[in-house]
Design a protein that fits this description.
The relative contact order is 0.12. Strands 16, 19, 20, 22, 27, 28, 29, 30 and 34 form a nine-stranded antiparallel β-sheet that branches. The protein starts with a helix and ends in a 15-residue tail after the last strand. It has about 700 residues and is α+β, with helices and mostly antiparallel strands.
């Protein structure tokens, strides 16, 4: 590549790896019998009594607490905690505890409880997706215990249900969807969220005022420097009746500035930075926000990363909309949360994303993806806001300002980094030539497209060279409706792939089974490999901007011919499928599913988080045998980051038999005698190695 292109390519790699380190990286219950069901509690006597008290002037910051001398206060925000709840359970082998001796959800709420007084934190906001799997009681237990840290310290909080916290999570597409999937259509007595976080539990907060009749939506009133704020928290898919309740709650509190928290409102564009409005968010804007001048700020999770949109309401005033969600960062979010520092003297809201968990991890466990503070502009920024002018339409703004103290976020950052040294981030080196990669022993196959044929159609029978063992792949004969020009050679490639080229699979359409693929010959020696000593599988992948789950979900990058149900002893599901599935799921996750060699009874699966369209990724799956056993730990790495959802189980991967070893497939999968589930996008060089490799031996490294 030219130096200019090389620089741009490496820049994109660095940007993407920074994104992985912060927001788009990947993550490798008794329900409290004493808690009452939340069914109908929004109109209970307790809620009514709380409502009656809303007009009083005394709004607690937490019993017995007084603010430290400062010019500002801070709002703590907990984005989607779903993976923290899931992977701390025994159901998932307590992955956090085993690796780090602690858990991120607990670390977040303990940090808030321990520091609320010192940093003037009067209130905490949870943005929903409290758990990952609504039907798993142990996940609710983890969440319950974490939020009890705040209750024990008497730090008030609001909480809401995300789509993962409700039994039916239909998305919103348009106004017609208000007749299905909202709080109005739920069986309230069956909802685990309402059992774990009922109105009776919310009413224990000093700031609590009311829940709606469904029990899913609530509002609180907290105070700082004599200024009272409403926190209006709306759970997933609010009904029209719920919106009417929210409007009425604002009407009954006509002088309160309102912060609206919600699970979904603002999205993030494909660049990972720019704001993108959603249909649901636009509906809330039209029905609730635009004509309620008191709503000056919104917070939501659900969409992965961080972005901000300033939007003008019907009064000519700006509403600051912000999305923050770190669930797809390293380790399911790596304990990242936010502080919003409101400085009445400076007329600013200063925002910082940080992790109280990272700084307490064992030092030996830290790697380049561990960061205590996120410095990027979409995670660390300042909003200029003239509070007196912004609130003038409904409030005479007269805060009781202190004249001493230092800004909160600066103190938080200083304290966090006091005994923490951020790991060194390796700087990737560009390939010096087409063979600048580590050649390693036990490479069973290494298929490499070569540059110089950009845009040329791959004809049936054209080959993809195996530079390691000679097990060439060839494009297989067409099956209608596939056409010959559905596959072309491309010079587009990952900046760290020295091959300098890829294969572009076009026009794939799952609805009509349109797919194309390559395959090894029937007698290729690699077909019979079962990788008993572990393995490393590497590939480079990029999916297009117009990737559509309706057309392209479960598109397979690599597989093996033959039904896995024919393997001796197989008892798992989808017996007609291949013994190897390397695919992009309906949620744009990378799936690695194999039938192990040492125990062929059931398949085991690794999952990444959501990958971004139009970005190159290096995927490595490394299976490392556990000494003295027939088991192994299999870890998927995406751009060098180990994902959260990994496997400890049997080792190797079994070759499907029908009746003997079957060919490998590139660009499609297998289902009951035919190639199915074609891949849509670019595939770069792909390598199979019969042992675990370390990152310095991967294709993204350079030869010695």
């Amino acid at each position: 590549m030219s130096s200019e292109k090389e620089g741009r390519g490496l820049g994109r790699v660095a940007d993407r790896r920074a994104l992985l380190r912060s927001v788009a990286g990947f993550t490798t219950l008794p329900i409290g019998a004493a808690l009452l069901s939340g069914c109908g509690e929004g109109s209970s006597a307790a809620a009514a009594a709380a409502t009656a008290s809303a007009g009083t002037d005394a709004v607690a910051m937490g019993a017995g607490r007084t603010p430290a001398a400062t010019t500002s206060f801070a709002l703590a925000v907990l984005p989607d905690t779903q993976f923290y709840s899931r992977y701390a359970t025994t159901d998932e082998s307590q992955q956090f505890q085993r690796k780090y001796g602690s858990t991120p959800f607990d670390a977040q709420t303990r940090w808030i409880a321990d520091n609320a007084a010192a940093y003037n934190i009067p209130f905490v906001v949870h943005l929903g997706d409290v758990v990952d799997q609504v039907g798993k009681p142990n996940q609710w237990t983890i969440a319950d215990a974490a939020m009890k840290n705040l209750e024990a310290a008497k730090v008030p909080y609001s909480i809401l249900a995300g789509n993962h916290d409700v039994l039916v999570d239909y998305d919103y597409r348009g106004s017609w969807d208000q007749n299905s999937g909202t709080d109005a259509q739920r069986n309230l007595s069956a909802e685990p969220y309402l059992k774990t976080f009922p109105a009776s539990r919310a009413a224990q907060q000093a700031t609590f005022r009311e829940r709606d009749p469904s029990g899913f939506h609530e509002y609180h009133v907290f105070e700082a420097f004599g200024v009272r704020f409403m926190m209006l928290s709306l759970s997933w898919r609010i009904s029209d009746a719920g919106i009417a309740w929210a409007r009425d709650a604002i009407r009954r509190n006509p002088t309160l500035p309102v912060i609206l928290s919600n699970h979904q409102l603002l999205n993030i564009d494909s660049d990972g930075i720019s704001p993108l409005e959603t249909e649901y968010g636009k509906m809330l804007w039209d029905k609730l926000i635009r004509d309620n001048d008191q709503i000056f700020m919104t917070l939501n999770g659900h969409h992965h990363g961080g972005a901000r949109l300033s939007k003008t309401n019907d009064f000519g005033n700006v509403v600051e909309e912000m999305v923050v969600d770190y669930q797809m960062a390293y380790q399911g979010g790596n304990g990242l949360m936010r502080l919003y520092e409101f400085d009445f003297g400076a007329n600013t809201i200063d925002v910082m994303s940080f992790s109280p968990w990272v700084v307490q991890k064992p030092k030996a466990s830290l790697n380049q993806f561990d960061r205590a503070i996120l410095p990027e502009a979409n995670h660390r920024f300042t909003i200029a806001m003239n509070f007196k002018k912004r609130f003038a339409g409904f409030l005479r703004f007269r805060p009781m300002l202190s004249t001493t103290g230092t800004p909160i976020l600066a103190r938080v950052q200083s304290k966090l980094l006091e005994n923490y040294v951020e790991p060194v981030v390796p700087v990737p080196a560009a390939p010096r030539d087409a063979n600048d990669y580590p050649v390693v022993p036990d490479t069973y196959a290494h298929w490499r497209p070569m540059p110089g044929r950009d845009g040329q159609i791959v004809q049936v029978g054209d080959t993809l060279a195996d530079v390691a063992s000679g097990f060439t792949m060839a494009r297989v004969p067409l099956v209608a409706p596939a056409l010959v020009d559905d596959v072309v050679w491309s010079d587009d490639h990952h900046a760290l792939s020295s091959a300098g080229a890829s294969i572009l699979f076009r026009n794939t359409d799952k609805r009509v089974a349109r797919n194309s693929s390559f395959a090894t010959a029937m007698d290729a020696g690699v077909n019979g490999r079962s990788f008993w000593n572990g393995y490393t599988v590497e590939s480079f992948v990029k999916i297009p901007t117009d990737w559509d789950p309706a057309l392209h979900r479960w598109g397979n990058m690599l597989g093996r011919c033959g039904n896995r149900g024919l393997l001796p002893g197989f008892r798992g599901g989808d017996a007609q499928a291949s013994s190897v599935l390397f695919a992009i799921s309906s949620l744009r996750e990378v799936q690695w599913e194999v039938v192990p060699a040492s125990n062929s009874s059931y398949p085991q699966t690794n999952w990444s988080g959501e990958i971004i369209r139009n970005s190159w990724y290096h995927i490595a799956i490394v299976c490392t045998p556990i000494a003295g056993t027939t088991n192994a730990e299999t870890i998927m790495y995406v751009e060098g980051a180990p994902v959260m959802r990994n496997v400890i189980g049997a080792t190797g991967m079994r070759s499907a038999t029908n009746p003997g070893p079957q060919p490998w497939i590139l660009g499609a999968g297998w289902w009951d005698g035919a190639r199915k589930d074609g891949f849509y996008g670019w595939l770069g060089e792909t390598r199979l190695v019969g042992r675990p490799l370390t990152p310095d031996q991967w294709l993204t490294a350079r030869r010695a």
